[in-house]
Amino acid sequence: MPLLNDKNEEEKSLALRWYQVRNQVKEQFGERPDINAMLFIIGMNEVGIVKEKWEKEEKQDLMHVALCKMLSTEGYYELLGYDAEGWPIYEPVKGVPKLVLKEQDELLKRKIIEYFEAL
């Protein structure tokens, strides 16, 4: 049974750290964000641009930047540089493994937690 207990403790730790990061962001922005909002915030931070209103495509681009940034720490993307507007340009290095929804959710939460804990 130790393996089950270890995993349970790991899941508890992830849930607690996720809760803490979401509360940290809530204190700054007034609402507790979901994963998509966290990706949007990370994207804005990486691009270094804060605007009151973003177009839908820009929001998607910001979330993509966030994903590339976080997955670059796992070797899936590499930062090539920045475009003329200051947006980071990432290149895929290796394919991201296919994950079931729960695994995707846990991976994103872990990477978001790592990102905010490193700030």
Describe the structure.
The chain is mostly helical and 119 residues long. The chain has one domain. 64% of the residues lie in helices and 9% in strands. The chain contains four helices and two strands, in the order αααββα. The protein has helices spanning 2-29, 35-47, 56-72, 101-118; strands at 77-82, 88-92. A two-stranded antiparallel sheet has the order 1-2.
Please give the structural blueprint:
Elements: H1 2-29, H2 35-47, H3 56-72, E1 77-82, E2 88-92, H4 101-118
Antiparallel strand pairs: 1-2
State the helix count: 4
Stretches where pLDDT falls below 50 for ≥5 residues? none
Q: Rough shape?
A: globular
Tell me the major beta sheet. 2 strands, antiparallel
Concise overview:
This protein has one domain. It has helices at 2-29, 35-47, 56-72, 101-118, and strands spanning 77-82, 88-92. It has 4 helices and 2 strands.
What attributes characterize this protein structure?
mainly alpha; 2 strands; 119 residues; 4 helices
